[in-house]
Amino acid sequence: MTNSATLQGVYVNVPAADWSLFRELIRKFGWKAETREQMLSRFVNSRSISPSISEEEIMEEVKSVRYAKS
Question: What string of DSSP letters covers 28-68?
Fold first, then answer.
């Protein structure tokens, strides 16, 4: 089994008619496949529900940098 440092992510458009054949090839090689929807769902689920910084804190930081006295 390869470690994640040697993996290459690839996005491939496969015709729906060929998807079962391609999925079988993926299984035989021991690769991992997921659809665009699955990737998006995994990303959304990995995000925190509440931001670590509020909008007010962001604006205070922007103002302090933008209007800093030099």
Answer: HHT-----HHHHHHHHHHHS-SS-SS-HHHHHHHHHHHHT-
What are the phi and psi torsion angles at 20 (to 5°)? -65, -40
How many CB atoms sit inside 10 A of residue 44's CB? 8
Rounded average pLDDT per 10-residue block, the chain, 70 residues: 75 92 94 89 88 87 85
Residue 52's identity, in one-letter code, is: S
Whole-angstrom distance, CA of residue 51 vs CA of residue 34 = 27
> How far is Cα 70 from Cα 67, in angstroms, rounded to an integer?
9
**pLDDT at site 1:** 53
23 close to 33: Cβ distance less than 8 angstroms: yes
